[in-house]
Design a protein that fits this description.
heterodimer, B: alpha/beta, 11 helices, 14 strands, about 30% helix, about 25% strand
């Protein structure tokens, strides 16, 4: 317990942690500012303009439908009417040229809806916090190795596995605390934007529950990323190993290998990238539409090939990475000489 | 009396894929009695730091037995570590924390009361600079902070690796007084240092290590006496060459220097007086050449500098079988039975047993 208390103090006393919190706050503030500036409560002028544009659109559609029907009945002229009159099989002019979407609401300027947009912005928050957690997690142990702090600590507490466990538990607790505070601030910010410059939408208990679950998944991802950063830095005995590995992964795999796999027309290349599983985890699932490898079924048209990664698969992938990295880190910490 | 620290047959081999295995400790033995200030000496790369790291559980040994305060380590290290304060090699701390915060974090982790932090800061002379970042500290101040961290636990055994490194002369004296004070209060101090004059002044006993093996151990005076060659500086009135002839003819080993002679392997200096007087050669000086710990150390470890030769770190003397490196002239130590023995005494009398210390 003493160790956790000391590590807790150390975590929040570190300049790197404080700096990273400031960076995260700056990023979130910029995103929040962007969201706030992009939304505007509709005034009477905006409503009138939207109604005018909707009416104009309805007129355009009605004219196109008239031309289409004239072409279909053989009374229409050639030119644009001919083009308009060529319909896909099984369609009519009435089904193709519908004006039900041409309402004033659809021509209103963007208005932030808490119900519709908060879930996505909570995922963005999770992504930003994951970057924070990786850097802080790596530095928390990496800087200790390179500064000699680990050696000093082991001269006080020679049981190595409890020492590393204490540090990891403290890191996860501290990241969770940071996440909770920042998440509360983030939701409050979005709430404020909805209250003053947007709308809330219909918020049912189901919506709240869904957002809470999304947030919890984002927290789980943040903690997993922190633990992986911690584990890699502990293995390499410095922060740079973890940060280098992260940068190397993004450049070599997420960018380089993605290009190579696309050129080689490999089937389902997204399955090799952690970003796919991260999105699937946050979003419950992700469906990827593949056009390059067509399926020819009832028609001669190319049918896209869709496949899905769900959160269970993501949990498996991240769980395996976590077990391997932390397993190796603990094994090395227990066995290797401290020189 | 139970030894505070005991090491028997300690072995450690570092393995590297690129450089292959390297034996750092090769059956090393060491005993430190309670209440002593014990010097732990050895050339660079001789295994001092590896010994201390192994003792403190930072490095895994390949063999041997160790005990601290009567308990086997590393098995009982968690139980005994609270009574051991240690600094190993150069002090390293997190640069952005202040000295006080650094110690407070250690104290919290070790369950030591915060007031002890201020006590040790006072003790090492960092009280007024404790609020500054460690990054701004000089090497000597970092060294003081390291000693403070070792003292936090109010240890019964204090292990200090090069504690005087970077200290100014006043700091060295303060450190010396502090160690003396700690020993007087019952704390056993193990001190690794290359400042041999300092060690000779403050240590009760020493262990000398060379290439992973003990080459000498015991009270400082005995270790020095063990290397005594019974050498005397002799000056005569008139012709020194005549004195060399007379003494050599009488069976003494004599070396002529610029303005004096050195007679070796003498037990009774009066023999020189009598021998020269018999030939009407009159002494103007007959002084015992006292040895100090430094010369004994250089001799025992085979690291005496030779003009025109830059010694490599692994060229120290390895006692026992398979000795390599430049063997010194004499290795008459209790711990190096297989080492070359001193040249047979040519003097008509046995070498002397004791000489006054420098």
């Amino acid at each position: 317990m003493n160790l956790v208390r000391a590590e807790w103090k150390r975590f929040f006393a570190r300049r790197f942690t404080r700096l990273m919190v400031v960076v995260v706050l700056a990023i979130l503030a910029l995103i929040g500012l962007g969201v706030a500036l992009s939304t505007q409560p509709p005034g009477p002028g905006a409503v009138a303009e939207a109604e005018r544009m909707a009416a104009q659109e309805r007129e355009r559609i009605a004219e196109a439908r008239r031309q289409c029907e004239a072409f279909q009945s053989g009374t229409g002229s050639t030119g644009s009417g001919e083009k308009i009159g060529q319909l896909p099989p099984g369609e009519t002019c009435a089904t193709v040229y519908r004006d039900d979407y041409a309402t004033a609401e659809n021509f209103m300027p963007h208005v932030f809806s808490f119900r519709d947009e908060a879930p996505t912005l909570l995922m963005v928050f999770g992504g930003v916090l994951a970057l924070f957690a990786f850097a802080v997690g790596a530095s928390f142990i990496g800087a200790e190795w390179s500064s000699g702090g680990i050696m000093n600590l082991l001269l006080w507490r020679p049981r190595r596995v409890p020492v590393l466990t204490g540090k990891l538990v403290t890191l996860l607790a501290a990241v969770t605390a940071t996440w909770l505070v920042l998440a509360a601030g983030w939701v409050a910010l979005l709430w404020g934007v909805a209250a003053f410059r947007g709308r809330f939408g219909t918020i049912t208990s189901g919506v709240v529950q869904s957002m809470a679950l999304t947030s919890l998944r984002s927290l789980a991802l943040v903690l997993a990323v922190a633990a992986v950063g911690f584990g890699v830095a502990s293995l390499g005995r410095n922060t740079a190993t973890a940060l280098g590995l992260a940068v190397g992964y993004v450049v070599v795999l997420e960018i380089g290998a993605r290009i190579v796999l696309e050129i080689a027309e490999v089937i389902k290349p997204e399955r090799w990238f952690l970003s796919t599983y991260a999105v699937a985890w946050l979003n419950k699932k992700v469906t990827i539409t593949e056009w390059r490898h067509c399926r020819y079924e009832t028609t001669s048209d190319c049918q896209s090939y869709d496949w899905t990664v769900d959160m269970n698969q993501s949990a498996l992938v991240f769980g395996a990475i976590l077990v391997v990295v932390l397993g190796l880190a603990f094994l090395a910490f227990r066995q290797r000489d401290v020189t | 009396m139970t030894a505070v620290l005991e090491i028997q047959g300690l072995r450690k081999t570092y393995r590297s894929l690129r450089r292959g295995p390297r034996r750092a400790l090769d059956g090393f033995d060491m005993v430190v009695e309670p209440g002593q200030v014990h010097g732990f000496l050895g050339p660079n790369g001789s295994g001092k730091t590896t010994t201390l790291r192994t003792l403190l559980g930072l490095v895994r040994p390949n063999g041997g037995r160790m005990s601290i305060l009567g308990q086997e380590v590393p098995a009982a290290l968690p139980e005994v570590i609270g009574r051991v304060g240690a600094i190993v090699e150069s002090p390293q701390f997190f640069g952005n924390f202040s000295g006080r915060r650094t110690l407070r974090l250690l104290a919290t982790a070790g369950g030591v009361a915060d007031r002890r932090v201020d006590e040790v800061l006072e003790l090492v002379g960092l009280r007024d600079r404790a609020g500054e970042r460690v990054r701004t500290y000089s090497l000597g101040m970092k060294q003081r902070l390291a000693v403070a961290s070792a003292l936090l636990k109010s240890p019964e055994l204090l292990i200090l690796d090069e504690p005087a490194n970077g200290l100014d002369p006043a700091g060295i004296r303060e450190m010396r007084d502090m160690m003396r004070g700690l020993a007087a209060s019952g704390v056993t101090v193990v001190l690794s240092s290359h400042i041999l004059g300092e060690v000779q002044q403050i240590c009760d006993s020493v262990t000398i290590i060379s290439r992973g093996r003990r080459v000498a151990s015991g009270p400082v005076s005995q270790v020095i006496a063990g290397q005594d060659r019974g050498e005397y500086r002799v000056r005569v009135e008139g012709d020194p060459a005549a004195a060399v002839r007379v003494l050599t003819a009488a069976g003494a080993r004599v070396t002529g220097k610029d303005d004096h002679l050195v007679v070796s392997d003498l037990a009774d200096p009066a023999w020189v007086t009598r021998t020269l007087a018999a030939q009407e050669l009159w002494l103007t000086e007959l002084t015992p050449l006292t040895r100090d710990l430094e010369s004994v150390f250089l001799e025992l470890t085979g690291t005496t500098p030779e003009p025109g030769h830059t010694r490599q770190v692994d060229e120290a003397y390895r006692p026992g079988n398979g000795a390599t490196g430049p063997a010194p002239d004499a290795h008459a130590t209790p711990d190096a039975p297989a080492a070359p023995t001193p040249p047979a005494a040519a003097a008509p009398v046995a070498p002397s047993a004791g000489q006054e210390r420098a």
